[in-house]
Amino acid sequence: MFLFLCLLIGREKRFTFRTEAQIWAVTLFCGTSVLYASRVAFPIAAADIAKEFTWNKTDSGIMLSCFFWGYALTQLFAGWIADIYGGENVLPISSLVWIILTFFTPQLLEFAYWSGFPLVILLLFRILSGVGQAFHVPSMASMIARHLTSADKGRLFGIILAGSHCGLVYWSICFLVCLHRIFNHKSLIWLRIKLPSPIPCVIRVLIDKSNTPTVKKPSQSVIFYQKLYRAAAAAQYAGGNAYYTMFSWLPSYFHETFPDAQGIVYNVVPNVSIVITSMLSPLLATVVLNTGQSMTVTRRLMEGTSLLGVAACLFIVPYTSSFIPALLVFSLSMACRGLHHGGVSVNPHDFAPHHTGAVFGIFNACGSITGFIGVYVAGHILDATNNNWSYVFIITGVQCIIGAVIYGLYGTGTKII
Q1: What CATH superfamily classification does 2-207+218-410 receive?
Q2: Which of 18-27, 162-171, 186-195, 374-383 reaches the highest mean pLDDT?
Q3: pTM score > 0.85 for this model?
Q4: Distance CA 72, CA 8 (A)
Q5: Which residue, 377, 405, 404, is CA-closest to 392?
Q6: Which residue ranges make up each domain of the chain?
Q7: Which ranges form a coiled coil (predicted)?
Q8: What does DSSP assign to residue 10?
Q9: What whole-number distance in Å separates Cα of residue 199 and Cα of residue 189?
């Protein structure tokens, strides 16, 4: 109701552009939170679903990772569509797709079990969910790139992306104490909020598409073969691999390693830590910039601290023998990951300000690929090593160090195209 009133107020022309931007920042923050709330439901329930369907770790890894098949492979197309038709027009349609799929998840699980082919049906369902959610972040990136000044783009986009971690906390709590369908009603409410006025009135006045020259989109090869871009993509891949591995497997890790631990604790506490740092990291990056440091130094500092911090925590985890130390280490690891929102996460706005949607689509695909490669490989490692989690954490930490070194040497915050 609050957001709906904000949008009604936002239609009045007496409000400033900054007020409009703040209203839409809150709306997109909430939308991102709801989207990630939907995404985290399956990993939290994975241990119980695997027990019901008698899956091994490889089967669970496939089911957890196949979401990212659709998500990663649709990123480039999603960014291209958002740049052509406007993210504000693409976002409501794509949101409707994943909301409907989430709403009917319980029925799909029952149907899959009844059909006798649960893996195939759930595989298709997870891939389609990934396709539906793939349009969200590139559409937001395109909207922000077109409607905000360069000084505000990185900070605002980083704060909006922090909504993803709020969604993880929100759903982790609701999943454990509430009924499944309560969340979906909130999803539909958010979609209803977004549909009436896709573009704020002030933005419509300032950005007249009929008078705006068409900017020729760069080819994929021109972007990808830039060394500076590949450095950012490598850091995105390394950080994404660590994040998605923890995102997908931590509930199972705690469930198996510490069976007496409360699920609401280990599903919520690590995500609370990343919420705090992801909200603060764009502001910290601004503080560093205000000290006279260049954008390149700022991005390298934030991303390097993030990746090396995550790696250090993952190396420590195998030496923890009780629940509380393990929980604290993983919480610190997730907190370090939150610094990413002041680093590589907002890099496309730095090096491709006029092509953010398309470039972010390619860029985000690099991180999302780890969702199906890294998560599946983790499951395979667990099967091959009789559930030895140490191998998973050490291999993931080494990749973070490699990503930090590459980005520290070649990463940039300057315009490339």
Answers
A1: MFS general substrate transporter like domains (1.20.1250.20)
A2: 374-383
A3: no
A4: 35
A5: 377
A6: 2-207+218-410
A7: none
A8: H
A9: 18
